[in-house]
Design brief:
Order of helices and strands: HEHEHEHHEHEEHHHHH
CATH class of the largest domain: Alpha Beta
Number of domains: 2
Number of strands: 6
Radius of gyration: 21 Å
Structural class: alpha/beta
Number of helices: 11
CATH superfamily of the largest domain: P-loop containing nucleotide triphosphate hydrolases
Strand order of the largest sheet: 3-2-1-4-6-5
Function: Required for a late step of 50S ribosomal subunit assembly. Has GTPase activity.
Family: Belongs to the TRAFAC class YlqF/YawG GTPase family. MTG1 subfamily.
Strand content: 5-15%
CATH architecture of the largest domain: 3-Layer(aba) Sandwich
GO cellular component, one term: cytoplasm
Pfam family, one: MMR_HSR1
Organism: Orenia metallireducens
Distance between the termini: 26 Å
Amino acid sequence: MSIQWYPGHMVRAKRQVEDRLKLIDVVIELLDARIPFSSRNPDIDEILKDQKRVIVLNKIDLADPEKTKSWKRYFSNIAPTVAVNSLTGQGVTQILRLARDLMNEEFAVLKEKGRNERNIRMMIVGIPNVGKSQLINQLSNKSSAKTGNRPGVTRGQQWVKLKKGFELLDTPGILWPKFEDEQVGFRLALAGAIKETIFDSELLAYKLVELLSEVAPEKLEERFKLDHLNPDTYELVADIGRKRGCLQSGGRIDRDRTSDIIIKEFRDGKFGNLTLELPPE
């Protein structure tokens, strides 16, 4: 499943991030806890270089808790890392604490010079639909950023005042121009980071069912009340369609509707807590 997508507004967004870095103390790099590897834009490392940063694993309510711990240990070797749920606010206050810790040395110098601490200026970066706007609303304790369960909701940049001496620059999501690994494109499409007009949703659903048959067959059976999993993915999707009443005239399976149900229920966490990637050994 090959997906290539890099619309013009993302080129502009990348340039805007590069231009604004000189104003920023700490960058919040936001990842999807279900796909930490695929949701980590490799361009960000090149852009940020030695910039202070906090890595945030979001959507932990949808991910496997033990695998989230493994990813947290892995990323902690790169930068301070915290796992959060931007919908409920779980873990969010730790982000500010870690950002403050990164600034301790600089503030100590200001104190020696008899100067007051200033606001810590942060920037939040991440792929589309990773929950940036929800996280900003949690950090600011108000609905200052637009939210939406689709990529590309944030198109411009805006400064947001946070509590306790912090300011934050919101930026649009940035995807990288080419997916070297087809699986990365597949996982990003599953997570909702890519517009649905870009990929074949039926093929995406087939690949998801195939994957779940391998890594979580019991959850697939339970969710769709299946007696067994047909080893033929095409027929298995048809079984799911019949169970959900997705039928057309003549009893034919409505595969488009079935595919939409499978993808939506994965995104809504109906299969339970699932993490699709493991950190490197």
